Amino acid sequence: MSDNGKCIFWAPEGPMLRVSFSEYKGFTLHIMDLNPEQHTRWALSRGELLRIGWGLIRSAFRRAA
To answer: Whole-model pTM?
Structure first.
């Protein structure tokens, strides 16, 4: 990948999340997986990126029912 994005999460067995700057909405979220090999990209505004991040933080602290 030739962009200069920042890695948010990476696990050797598969998933990688990266964020890079985009001219379209401000940011692009890259989701890459190895099994099967896939690369998904979403254009996001700063607010959308913040909402996703906040949702992940809340999910991490919730107790399983």
So the answer is: 0.68
